[in-house]
Amino acid sequence: MQVLISIVSLGVFCLLAEVFNLRKLLVPITVIGLLAVLGISLNLWSIDSSLDTQFSSMIATNKFSSAFSTLFILLTIFLVAMSDDFYKDHPTKFSDFIAIKLFLLTGAVAMVSFTNLAMFFLGIEVLSISVYILAASERLNVKSNEAGMKYFLLGSFASGLVLFGICLVYGATGYFDMGEIYDLSQGVGLPVWYPIGVALIIIGMLFKIAAAPFHFWAPDVYEGSPTLTTATMSTLVKVAAIATLYKLVSGFSVTIGFKVENIIVVISILSMTVGNIMALRQKNVKRMLAFSGISHAGFMLMAFLNISTAANNLLYYTFAYALAGISAFAVIIMATKNKENENIENFNGLGKTSPLMAAILTASLLSMAGIPIFSGFFAKFMLFSDTVKVGYIVVVIAGVINSIISIGYYFKLVLAMYTKDSDSSEHNKPSGYYLYSIVAALSIILNIIIGVYPSLVTQLLK
Amino acid sequence: MDVTTLLILLLIGAVATLVSGDKLASKVALLFSLVAFGLSINLLLQFTQGVDVSFVSNWIESPKVALALKADGLSMAMVLLTTTLTPIIILSTFGNNFSSGKNIYALILLMAFAMVGTFLAADGLLYYIFWELALIPIYFIALIWGNGDTEERKKAVVKFFIYTLAGSLFMLVGFAYLYSKAGSFLLEDLYKLELSNGEQFWIFFAFFLAYAIKIPIIPFHTWQAKVYQKAPTVGTMLLSGIMLKMGLYSVIRWQLPIAPNAAKEYMPILIGLSIAGVIYGSIVALRQKDLKKLLAYSSLAHVGLIAAGCYTLTADGLNGAVYQMIAHGFVIVGLFFAAEVIFRRFETRKIKELGGIRSQASGFTSMFMILVLASVALPGTYNFIGEFTVLYSLSQVNLWYALIGGTTIILGAYYMLKMFQNVMLGETNTKVFKDVNVSEAIVFVAIIGFLLFFGLYPKPINDLVNPAIKEILAVINR
């Protein structure tokens, strides 16, 4: 709760900063503020308040919520740091954008620490509305408007499903409280709309993480949104949604006529395959990463097959995926600056014109593809190994085949950077070059560190 | 001192090369590789005196992974092969002028690091990490500094990468399964596993995909010739001299002892496929017009024979395979270097456009001749000992294997000598061919010296390798 309050107050402060003409100092102040919040979050680490009833049992801090909040705060620090240069052309709205990012973080933190479905819905709405705004934030760009509109329409539909599901669960059990619902669902005799309600909530969340067959919004929205928003969506939002999904799945216990795992198997394999095969055909890098994100959602869903280790595996996977995503997007923003689109041709010759950037992008793509020593390798390996343990070899084989397919499109970008020559003659470093390199380098270094010492992350939940 | 020192040194070498700048890079890399060579000799001396140079330490708690590096005769032999060939390969590039040289030399040392790690690792996951890590440098070396048309090269190199990665990912699944059974990745724990025949079949098959692609064994060889042709010679040397030995080494170290029953059951198929590679490689080599491609196919034939030796599961077969790995590593590096020397002067690798070099460069001709003879296993060279031991072991299993496998020597002699005749002999070439310079001569002399010395006195290598193979055979026949 302290974390939540401090983030909100930081957000409000950002809005007020506009009044006091602090625009230039805003990003440093916010980053320092977020670092302080990170400290608070780490300080609360050992506290497990899931049992006491403060705040009317709305919210609880435990290791799971602290670990994911830490990741969210870390990602927000990177995203806010990049805003400094990214929103240069929108000086009047600058503080709004920063504040919205902080509110988005609030929603994300609420989503992983709720103990009451009302709080869960509040969290998901705060997060979603912030993303709708950010997606449409380039007011004069048709594509951005389209992205915002599409995301808003489909997203609110998904929110509607979630709300409907919550109502059905409430109708069946008479509670919003997760603990009470769990206890009730252990017994027998819950009416049939309980599983229907749970299914609706989970479908809503699958929409948020863009798992097939609920993924159709993702490519268009990712492509149309301003690149920094795409980065936010593909890292922070996806990670928050998958963590919430875990909280929900482990909190509801559903017994119906057949094994729920079979549905997960189908959705997981479908997401991986659809995402990867579609990504092979993309020319726009943002679109390609949207599809790659869909396939990563499939990988993350694989973790749910072995629910006893799922929290740990998800935490590690999300760390690896999000850190690689941040560094990849930092390079993409830098490389496609002042360009009309984000097509692969814009990356031609990056290996020569700015070798550092090319190396970082290569490293983050290798991490996403799951090549050792990057943490993406361990993330995938732990998933595979724990899924083999419970006997779902089919999913693992599908995962392996998909990892191979994914090399095809990740390397398309690598090949463009190293084997083609740049067609533009300007070799000046664009503005904000150092900022983006620092963010990208830091994030990929963190990625490699947790790749070399996976225990740093896997021990967090022990 | 233990084997980690060697790994750390190579890694530091890679970083130092990267920061030393384009001009100094080759010298810094050579220096580090020579120090690494000296260090590995020192380690070998300690090892032969009975000092344990292995290293074990915990790394990751969950999943339980250890930093386990095991030094036995087999891994020491392979490490020495790597550390000896690395300086030779680096020295062989001194006539080339690479653009952004610091990167390529750093990648070479990084690759040496990964390969030494692969040979030493005694923990499944650590081994897998090194195995994959070796792939990244060679990918970039072949992609960026390769020759020929960019589009074609890209296709060949990406195909290579995807093939090898695909194979190794199945091996990873195999390791995941083994881990769920044994609760650890340590080699000794995996050796102790009692797997049913069905399980052994799947594990064996998953590993086989990885190794058959890397070695390569027919029908997984399709990536090889193109990549050898398109990669820069230094990359081809690394690939053929050391990297494909990773696959053969892994067969002996990991595949056979973990799933021995499957190996026994499918022995005829495995040996059959390997020997098919021998015949296929030799026949295709006969018809090649490109010097590098011819050597690539000859390499395919030779490693086919080595793989056949491994799959005999006899002491002679495994020992012979290791000898031949070492011998082939040296001779193929020498042959590719000869092709590079010719290319530096004539800027072509088409056999038809060559010829008449002998009268202009007698020194080069005699060195090339010795290498050609070594590659066809002339007695007196180390290749003879390797090839003979393998053929002998094949004859113990079934005489027909040895007879068919033996064609590698006959066919090899035919296409290699024919190639030599077309490339070196004939009327004096109109173009001027300068004889080898000092650094080129050192490379040739080092390789030839090694092959001849151990060809006449193979005992040190035998003494090093035999006990380790004996131990592994004990596990296979448990």
Q: How would you sum up this structure, described in words?
A:
- The complex is a heterodimer of chains A (462) and B (478).
- Chain A has 462 residues and is mostly helical.
- Chain A folds into 2 domains: 1-257, no CATH class; 258-462, no CATH class.
- Chain A is built from 19 helices and no strands.
- Chain A has helices at residues 2-17, 26-43, 63-86, 94-113, 117-135, 142-173, 178-186, 193-208, 217-224, 227-251, 260-280, 285-302, 307-335, 350-353, 355-369, 375-389, 393-419, 433-452, 455-458.
- The longest helix of chain A is centred in the middle third of the chain and has 32 residues, at 142-173.
- Chain B is globular.
- In chain B, α4 (101-120) packs antiparallel against α6 (135-145) and α7 (150-182) packs across α10 (224-230).
- The two termini of chain B are 33 Å apart.
- The model of chain B has no long low-confidence stretch (mean pLDDT 89).
- Chain B has a domain at 267-478.
- With 478 residues, chain B is mainly alpha-helical.
- In chain B, a hairpin with a 4-residue loop joins β1 (55-60) and β2.
- Chain B has a two-stranded antiparallel ribbon.
- Chains A and B meet through α16 and α17 of A and α5, α6 and α7 of B.
Strand order of the largest sheet of chain B: 1-2
- Measured as a percent range, the helix fraction of chain B is over 70%
Query: What structural class results from the helix and strand content of chain A?
Result: mainly alpha
Give the strand content of chain B.
under 5%
| Shape field of chain A | globular
Task: State the distance separating the first and last CA atoms of chain B.
Answer: 33 Å
- The run of helices and strands of chain B is HHEEHHHHHHHHHHHHHHHHHH
Largest sheet geometry of chain B? 2 strands, antiparallel
Number of domains of chain A: 2
